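FYI - complex with FE2/S2 (inorganic) cluster, inputs then prediction.
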Amino acid sequence: MRPRGQSASIGEPVKASADLRLITGRGVFVDDLHLPRMVHAAFLRSPHPHARILGIDAKNAATSPGVVAIRTGSDLNLRSKLMQVGETTEASAIDIEVLPSGKARMVGDPLAVVVAQDRYLAEDAMELIDVTYEPLSPVLDADVARASTDTLVHENLGSNVFSTAEGGYGDWDEAVASSDVVVRETFRQARCSPFPLEGRALVADWDPADAKLTVWSSSQWPHMFRQHLSDLLNIPLDHVRVVTQDVGGAFGLKANTFREDIAIALLAVELGRPVKWVEDRRENLMASAHARDHSIDLEIALKNDGVILGLRARIVDDMGAYGLYPWSPDSWGKLLAVSLPLPYKVPNYQWEVVTVVTNKAPESAYRAPGNAAGAWARESLLDIAARQLSLDPIDLRRRNLIARQDLPFSPLGGGAPIDAVTTEEALEQAAALIGYDDFRQEQQKALAEGRYLGVGFGIYIKAAGRPKSPATVGLSETGLESATVRMSATGAVQAFVGACSGGQGYETTFAQLVADEMGVPVDAVQIQMGDTDFPAESSGTWGSRSTVVVGATLVGAARDVSTQMIAVAAKMMEAPQEEVALEGGFFIAERAPSERLSVLDVARAAWEDSSLAPSTLGTGLSSTRHYEIPGPTYSNGCHAAVVEVDTETGKVSVLRYVAVEDCGPLINPMIANGQIRGAIAQAYGSVFLEEIVYSEDGLPLTTTLLDYLIPDAASMGDVIIKHLETPAPGSGRFKSLGEGPLVASAPAFACAVADALSPFDARLTRLPLKPDRLIEATGGD
Amino acid sequence: MAQVALRLKVNGVEHEALVEPRLTLADFLRTDLGLTGTHLGCEHGVCGACTVLLDGEAVRSCLLFAVQTEGHEVITIEGMAQGEELHPIQEAFWEQHGLQCGFCTPGFILSAYNLLQENAQPSEEEIQAAISGNLCRCTGYQSIVASVKAAAEKLQLQRES
Ligand code: FES
Ligand code: FES
């Protein structure tokens, strides 16, 4: 029997519990930790994009005030396994050293680490280290790198091509032969930065008595990080503890295990005292990781009526100088390729991904990796095709969407069937809310006044919560998740989960799920997360998976505990279990409704009197569940933007913006809408502002926030959000929300600008759409 | 390095300390006083996460040396609430969920304080302009703008009663 809580909280804008500590300055981010005997690390980084390291002389630095230790690759590398990335069949592997000893391969490569009494002193000493370099010519352009073997970034690869992968289904040549038109364009997404406001940070400590390593880390995946520390440093898994408290944003950057992490852990073990390292913004923008450095050559074959017959994608991905452990460096290009046809019915599809090594920072996942850039390219090409065929761009999309009558739809490229998506409704509602029917008139009128208005749409279907399987990305445990729910004798509920929150509000939404399932108020539920010593396992918070997998797991465990409580209550009331219900916070037996027991009565009795507990359980009330749901769930959405482009200044103003989302029944609309708005802002950033720039000789030019621009409060106004809330089939199944809105938003903005500038036949194939590029595209100067 | 005597008031409490002249105000507050609510998002004066009030005016504590505050009064995020009672701006941020990860939030709250001192009823555009010197990567800013608007209303009600 499903218990009914005192107040159903699901669907309510419950105030986020974590907010209270964050608005009062009581959050605990890694840099806020001050442990006894703690020392501080700083990394000496290569100023050269490519250079042989002939010698590192730290003699003068060693006697600098406050210095505790200085270590280079020759000190550390043998104490850790190599961080090998790239085990897929097409790819050769790259072995990453903790600190490179032979060659620097990017500006920012960490060559030495200084540990001192404070960060100021560590940086003082760092300046006294003398490195002798033999500069080599760098490889910076992916096309050049691909074609030439004159300069190799990694000699063992034999070329600068890390891997070439191919895939698809159907027959592209056949599609072309039967088509009326083939449209082709090459799209260039700019290299950008995931840019969490808090950069990478960790404190590592070693307790020699217990032989235990404890690491406080700003992370998206403490359990995976624990596994990596254990594997690489050869410490038994249960002698490693990773703790993740407040995380100042992550967005994919913090689902990597970095060389600096390993170096700091090694130093903590060696020194037997806590070592802190917090990267500064310059290190973050220069040397942590970048993302989305894709070139997408896309062809689409269509009939004159707009029906898509086939798609061909040739993707070149600039992975930078290394991969990031443990991902295969070609993961992001492949994710792009695989996600391209969605949300349309594309009967024939052929793709190729060439992943190229250059002397730049490595490539990380960044919120909706692959998907966002791919959607921008695909939707842009659809608009170009619509113009060429004189079709309404919305009609062209209608004709090809995976629609209600196609469900469940088995993706031709493989994967779980797509179900419970509402692509047509989302499109129609977005078109209605943005005023599409009248827009063309509005646009014509504006044009007559010399104003350039445009409308753009972006559509997505996104899967989240894959089951245990070697996913495309090559991780072996992507589906691992467990949660424990316990009710204490005081009637308070503790739920342990392995996910962690970098602003997603899980402490609140998870508490709502448990509270409603168990019939207690939300504030009686404490969500405990981010500590690998808790009774919960996890693959981490990435790929929009946490609500889907943790939600389902938690609800299952909470339901078990409710069932246990009903069994206890039934014994106490001497009533058959089937006749006992939990209503409004009380257990009531059908026969004698006036004799009610509170949740607290039953909780206390269950802990105090073992004869009351169900025989299989022993004393107490608790359950641990594993994520068992076979296959992901799919979210969908459609965003539409109306923009005005000032062709004199290249300035783009967003006049209206609509987001129609179907992420299933909302758990907390306030938190959900925050995710959507945040994703739209990040899409705005990558469409209009964000670009990591290297000089021709390989020096990063965007190492401060004066050079690397992200959206600010004046970038755009509010957005209209509409939810469709179609449940995923099956009970306890949630849909995701973290990434999808970004996938729809990037094309909505970019296509709107292209539409506005269509009188100029402007080709807008390169992001970001900065004012100078727009002026150039209109033929101005 | 030679240390310099420093005397200042932080959140109403007098402090005396010996500091290096190069120590930033942000590091002094965070490390010497343990007031870790002031965050560092860039350390070069752009992101606004380190915003504190210096004699009632919003300043970037990463760009000031601690010694420059000799004899002055600093308010940090920890000084906004009166005991258990949240400042109306904090209440508004909570009610409107004007944050996600919360790393930028102390800076926004103190910038909002500064704005509302100078302009009790700012328009939406004025709010956007006033907080455009603070960066947030998570929220998309609309909930922050809504929080500042709600805070202005709360403060107005407080004045009226
Ligand atoms: S940390 Fe001071 S402005 Fe960014
Ligand atoms: S809430 Fe995360 S940076 Fe603003």
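The radius of gyration of chain A is 28 Å. DSSP finds 20 helices and 28 strands in chain A.
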